[in-house]
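Exam revision sheet. Question 4 asks you to relate a sequence to its structure. Input first:
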Amino acid sequence: MKGSKKAISDFNKGYNCAQSVFSAFGEKFGINKEQSRSIAGGFGVGFGRLQETCGAVTGAIMVIGCKFLKGNEWPASKEVIYKKARDFVEKFKQRNGTVNCLELIGVNFGTEEGMRITKEKNLFREKC
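Answer key, structure tokens:
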């Protein structure tokens, strides 16, 4: 199964966006699903439901770091990783208009009303 399909499958099982994206690709880098889900656990819904940077974006940036870090060559790999991360964010913004979870979803999950609307309209499935 392709990574994107794995991510969607995990998201549909209840894992957050960051967990779903990072765990779909983590095994390629020697990080098992449980470790990936643990590492990415706090990044969901824009950093612990703060609705800041989208969890799918943070999960993807974790994958970029794994893919482009060459051994212990952090200083040498840093600029490559930063550029790849910036390029990814720019493409995401072009496609979606923003990387901000609140702006993407359009509902504040920090309120009871926001959570009610999210559930009623199934926004996690419709927007994420």
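Marking note for examiners. Residues 3-127 form one domain.
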